[in-house]
Design goal:
Strand order of the largest sheet: 1-2
Strand content: under 5%
Helix content: 55-70%
Shape: elongated
Oligomer: single chain
CATH architecture: Orthogonal Bundle
CATH topology: Arc Repressor Mutant, subunit A
Number of strands: 2
CATH class: Mainly Alpha
CATH superfamily: Winged helix-like DNA-binding domain superfamily/Winged helix DNA-binding domain
Number of domains: 1
Distance between the termini: 37 Å
């Protein structure tokens, strides 16, 4: 297992990397005229509780398995899974009307 996967990211993602969330390229949304949607999504992500945000980033951005996320964040695999599910549920509710 790489150090990044074992200990989490060693640096912050670039703007381009951070714009890729859960397989959705937010920069592409911008090019398609989704400036408002992108800003709303960014606001929704920023409003997530810290633990949900960290778990979501580890899963969707870095592609870590739930067991790896649990080991990094000091929680069980089931808790990591529940946090990601909860974060996605909040994001869907936040921008669901837009999609």
């Amino acid at each position: 297992m790489s150090d990044q996967r074992r200990y989490g990211p060693t640096s912050s993602p670039s703007k381009e990397q951070a714009a890729e969330v859960g397989g959705t390229n937010l920069l592409a949304i911008d090019r398609l005229g989704g400036h408002t949607l992108r800003r709303e999504l960014e606001a929704c992500v920023a409003a997530l509780p810290t633990q949900q945000w960290a778990t979501l980033v580890q899963r969707k951005y870095f592609g870590l398995e739930y067991a790896e996320i649990g080991a990094i964040l000091g929680c069980s695999e089931a808790v990591a899974r529940a946090r990601v599910h909860g974060a996605l549920r909040v994001l869907r509710a936040c921008i669901g009307d837009q999609l």
